[in-house]
Amino acid sequence: MKAILLNAGKSSDLTWITADKPKCLMEIEDNSLLEIQINTLYKCGIDDITVVRGYKKEKINIPGIKYYDNDNYAETNVLYSLFCARNELNDEVLIIYGDILFEEDTIRRILDSKKDISIGVMTNWKENLSHRAALDYNDLEMLTFDAENRVNRIGKNLDSNNENIGLFIGIIKCSNNGIEILKKNYDRIKSANEGKLYLKNIDIEKAWATDLLDEMAEFGVPLHCVIIERGWLEINCEEDYERALSDTKFIRRLVKIKTDWATRSETYNNIAWVNRDETLNEMVNFAGDLENKKALDIGTGTGKVLKTLKDKYPNGNYYGIDISKEMMGKIDPSLGFNLSVSKIENLASFEDNFFDIVTARMVLHHSEDLEKALKEVYRVLKPGGKFIVCEGNPPDRHSVAFYEEMFKYKEDRHTFLLDDITNLMVNAKFKDITSKTIVLNNMSLNNWLSNAGVPFRNVDIIRKLHFNADMLVKKAYDMQMVQDDIIMNWKFSVVAGVK
């Protein structure tokens, strides 16, 4: 099964939202409309996805997707865009408008249809569009159907004549045979269209997909409805967009944050690098004697740093903060750590000059405000106290672009080279800065991704980015292909500064 997403046109009603980017890149809870569609399709087992681009096409560049371009998007319409991807019309195909949101169940209902050409339709369309202050019926793509759900008419400016009527939802499923029927009818009309003999005198390049379907229905080609009651939303105007933002129950069923910390907490301790001793031991070495001293671990997660410190110095007083109570919930209460939920930029619950040491293992890259975070750390440290940071690094400067592109599909994060961490320390007034570079060898890409709490679609993108990386990046990471996995070396910096 393939999917073709039609995203060539320029939106005229959402200019203030889309600005200078394609409509499909409008953001809903930090995910683009296109990313949400692709994630949902992947959950339905559809990973052969094509996007037809047009307006600002260079901005649509999600890896792992096939692209066809409609460079005449300003003078053409949906049907023309579809046949820009004609090379993909050779299998079972889902044809999907680019300005709709849909749930997994919506797609599965349409996939379950055994008909050659199946068309998604919403019968309670008035309720679905009730948020719009003004509704131009003639501008909607509607359809009428009989008692056997066979389409009689479909398109804009439709006279219902009291028939069963519904709203076309912008999703068409064609079997192999259905695709051949679609292509033959398109070719028939295109060859005769110079005189505009068909499609109600509409220039075929200006036609909607429903214009072709209506022509086919009138010629007796069987088209069948799949009734959809809910789980669908069109975003065609400002009111639609505001509804998408306000209907949080619907959107949260579709949108997946890039890293789900509650999910990640269940498997975090299975990640190989988390349990490697090299970075932990170096942090302990930098820490020095902590007997009867106070230590704070920010972004403590499942408490690996605190446990390592306590094993070395059991009589220390250990504190930890994290934004995820689920992550800290994996820490054994018998260890006696003082834990609280907080961002690293907000240490207001601690007094000035309170701690002898503050540690941060793989957390600064999550900071929303690095300057504020380091000021807070500096404030709560005693004079002479140490701040010890451990961060992952790109293996060299050439690999920075790859590193940043890869992590874009996991989380929003800062990228640090060793120099960057050192500069942060200096700017925050820490002195006597020392560092150690550590390379963890033989790290498994699959181990990391399968335990990282990242949506499946994003996992697939990150994998493809590694397999398709340029040779200099592969060399810098010493990537070795082992069956369907990549074994590689990861670089970390441990940096310590004194207040």
UniProtKB/TrEMBL annotation:
Gene3D superfamilies on file: Spore Coat Polysaccharide Biosynthesis Protein SpsA, Chain A, Vaccinia Virus protein VP39
GO terms for biological process, alphabetical: methylation
Record domain Methyltransferase type: where: 296-389
Protein's UniProt keywords contain Nucleotidyltransferase: yes
All copies of domain MobA-like NTP transferase, residue ranges: 3-114
Keywords: Methyltransferase, Nucleotidyltransferase, Transferase, Ubiquinone
InterPro entries xrefs: GlmU-like, Methyltransf_11, MobA-like_NTP_Trfase, Nucleotide-diphossugar_trans, SAM-dependent_MTases_sf
Domain of life, source organism: Bacteria
Keyword Transferase among record annotations: yes
Molecular function (Gene Ontology), one example: S-adenosylmethionine-dependent methyltransferase activity
Protein name: Methylase involved in ubiquinone/menaquinone biosynthesis
Organism: Clostridium cavendishii DSM 21758
